[in-house]
Amino acid sequence: MELMNWREQMLEDRDGLIRVSLEGNIGVGKSTMLYLLQRDPRLQRVLEVLEEPADSWKNVNGTGLNMLQAYYEDPVRYAYLFQSFVFITRLLLHKSAARKSQPVILLTERSVSTDRVVFVEALLEQGYLDGLEAVAYDAWYSTVVNALPNILADCYIYLRASPDVCYERLKSRARSEELGVDMDYLQLLHEKHDDWFLKGTSVVSGQDGHGGTGSSRGGHLRVIDQHRRSPCGIQGRSVLVIDCSSDLDMAEQSAERDAILDQIVTFLLSRLTAKSQSQSADICDQVSVEFEQILINSQSHHQGTSQAPAAA
């Protein structure tokens, strides 16, 4: 009965909600980007940000027990428990958001799809999840996602940086529960993200990140392949891929940071236009046209002005 109540609440109360997931490796800068977007005047009254419920992982049910730290310290023992708990806390976060009537764009830090496509796959490869645990996870995961399809993102923004860059940023923020995160793990997560958002997708517009046109810092729009096999029902969703290289500090104002924000804001706002025209137009084509225009404007701006130095 409780699951059915959630289903009614999430399908009916927020039927017009556009769900976008901000994705990327540990240390890539997701929290900083969420902070900037939440305060961007162009998104006022239309954007709601949901950060990962990490506090719930670090203080389980108010007991002071830190499941995130326990997982990093003993992944063989806690991998299945932690990933299951992460899914539950994301679901609770979505339930809370479903009660609100405004705004219309819900931007989440990662998604339930990330848990399955990136982290569970990585744990299987590392041997921290066995076959039985993986089958059990998929059994209840698929059941819940099929019953509550609105917990899936409509589209994605992938902040991409090398594992080396993420590792340096991770060390600089020095979170105690992340002390056990090493380069090998970041490399594995990087590969899983790329498998999802690059290898499993097709380029729609912008530079392709592999020798295509546009600036090296530019973003590009992709679409997850329709034929791709996935337990998440994410085929056909659009992905904005943004380069977050080592010489760009998102915490410091610069021309390059502003250009990236312009691309992301345009992508988010174009979803509103596409949503309103979804009865008579192809959403992906609409987003592609508007995103291509912001790339042209951004390139013209950089050709006509000197580039501000990026923070170290």
From TrEMBL:
Coiled coil: none annotated. InterPro entries: Deoxyribonucleoside_kinase, DNK_dom, P-loop_NTPase. CDD domains: dNK. Pfam families: dNK. Residues 21-267 form the Deoxynucleoside kinase domain. One of its GO terms (molecular function) is deoxynucleoside kinase activity. Signal peptide: none annotated. GO terms for cellular component: cytoplasm. It comes from the Eukaryota. This is Deoxynucleoside kinase domain-containing protein. It comes from Marchantia polymorpha subsp. ruderalis.
